[in-house]
Amino acid sequence: MSLEDTAEKIRTMEIRGAALIARAAVEALCKYGEGLGELALPEFKEELERAAGVLLATRPTAVSLPNAVNIVMKDVRNADTIAEAREALRLSSIEFIRDSKEALSKIAEIGARHIPENAVLMTHCNSQAAIGCIIEAHRQGKIREVYATEVRPRNQGLLTIRALNDAGIKTNFIVDSAARFYMKKVDLFITGTDAVTVNGAVVNKIGTSQIALAAREARVPMMVAAETFKFAPKTIAGDLIKIEERDSSEVLAKKIAGDLDNVTIKNPAFDVTPADFVDLIITEKGAIPPEMAYIIIRDYLGWEIGDFR
Ligand code: RUB
Asked: Taking the alpha carbons of 292, 132, 5, 89 in that order, is the dihedral positive or negative?
């Protein structure tokens, strides 16, 4: 698959979910670099930066994408010879993909420890990291049942119920607006995330914050499964996470919406759940309260306050 094909698949959400986007981007970048013919070092670096730009322009919210590209490009940028740059690209790509897969199993193991016995869970959207925790807890005999939302407008809930069903987990499929109705039966609300800010706010699929609000009202804790590469370094300097606004036709077909001259159809793909509503974030390095997000950004992603002067 060419770089442009991967970018298009990310844009159209054929490839979706923050971790899968990051891995696909890294694979595409690596393959693109390997396909570049004889080039001098500056041209090689330039071509890769251009390719990285194409990938970064696909979807704005998942910080896993710029983080992954930066992790892979760091050694390439520092390389002194073309051979070094090519080797750096190959090795750092292999390493990122391996580490990100290992992170998922670690998160599943740690997350399952924080799921109570005989638990009723609710989840929103389709997160590999969150589903990993649920499946591991199920393997340990801890899950009674799961409520999974539909996730309008793109119906990612269908992917979630397929995964839970295949794992043999008793699952209830509900429309998004039924989340509060069922919250009283739930012990834990669990999601993944596209970005965690330095102050511990969690950016995830639209509707997450509404369900988090219902969970808080019902005194149901919220747990977020997040690889460390989902933490957003630039929020240290006050950068806000850009919320992707997708095409209105995802919400309402153009042939229906066409003559509604006074109606604007809004389609934000993500929302922000404040740290106050989040009880625990499960990373591959351990479970942390949201207030510790800066430690992850500093100690595991290598960014400091001074980097953004
Ligand atoms: C996906 C979404 C997921 C996170 C985490 O949104 O909000 O909860 O990306 O997923 P979209 P994972 O479908 O718009 O990409 O844990 O798999 O990285």
From this structure: positive
Give 27-70 pLDDT, tens digit per residue. Answer: 999 999 999 999 999 999 999 999 999 999 999 999 999 999 99
> Does the ipTM surpass 0.95?
yes
What stretch of H or E contains 42? helix 41-56
Domain ranges of the chain: 3-103, 106-308
CA 21 to ligand 1 centroid distance, Å:
9
User: Known binder of ligand: residue 152?
Assistant: no
Sign (positive or negative) of CA dihedral 259, 260, 264, 267: negative
Q: For 3-103, CATH number?
A: 1.20.120.420
Q: What is the DSSP string of 213-229?
A: HHHHHTT--EEEE--GG
Q: Which two tokens stand for residue 69?
A: 């590209």
Q: How far apart are alpha carbons 61 and 136 in whole angstroms?
A: 28
CA of 140 to the centre of ligand 1 (A): 25
Candidates 30, 133, 194, 279; catalytic one: 194
The stretches of 140-289 forming alpha helices (DSSP H) are: 157-166, 179-183, 208-217, 254-257
Active site residue 5: no
Residue nearest atom 10 of ligand 1, based on CA coordinates: 127
Q: Which two tokens stand for residue 285?
A: 């390095």
Residue 194 known to be catalytic? yes
Ligand 1, CB cutoff 6 Å, lining residues: 16-19, 62, 125, 127-129, 156, 191-194, 204-205, 269
- The domain made up of 106-308 has a fold known as Rossmann fold (3.40.50)
